[in-house]
Amino acid sequence: MEIDLNADLGEGSGSDEALLDLVSSANIACGWHAGGSNAMRDCVRLALAKGVAIGAHPSFHDPANFGRKEMDLPADDIYAGILYQLGALAAIAQAQGGRIVHVKPHGALYNQAARDPAIADAIVSAVHDFDPSLAIFGLANSGFIETARQAGLAAIEEGFADRGYRADGSLVPRSEPGALIESEDEMLEHVLSMVRDKRVRTVDGTWVSLNVRTLCLHGDGPHALAFARRLRTVLDSNNIDVQPAWTLRT
Q: Domains in the chain, please, with CATH?
């Protein structure tokens, strides 16, 4: 078995370099919810040095809310904003001899794209027009994944090690009980169910089938780095190989 591990970087957590020793894909903030030109450059440099695949992590232009506030924007504005952020990171990567290989929207933009066809189409159109060889990371089983596939893009279905799921396969909103899994043991069981058994137990106790090909490791929690190290050990002991998502497109 194989799985990609990704982490959101350039967001000021202070653990970027250490996480890059554990993951196979990096989603680099493009300045609209966190980070900036210097942070992007530093993350690209470290990712290249450690052989980690580089991805863009675009968001709504909302640093005050860390990109987690839902917005009602025209599709053209979302399209242009994605192009703007991809262009910035791509230029920084190119200047250092690298390139971006995937795109993962951040926060509210990610969650709205999973359920709103207009937002999904705006993001997918921007990525396709910028570079159709780029892969899209999106919530497993979501409409966003289907939109990307219909456009001919490689769509990588994503699961979350530390997030609770509802019966429809969506994430429990952060404002509701069960949104975050606090126990490391529970998170490990959660991950193994997704990777090994292709399913996840929801907050109401039912099971939902998921074809997860990449797992997100959030780097902003107080014990995120320790959990990431423990997860790598558990994956290794279960003969689950960690590989960049672009090698797992089938």
A: 2-162+211-247 (3.20.20.370)
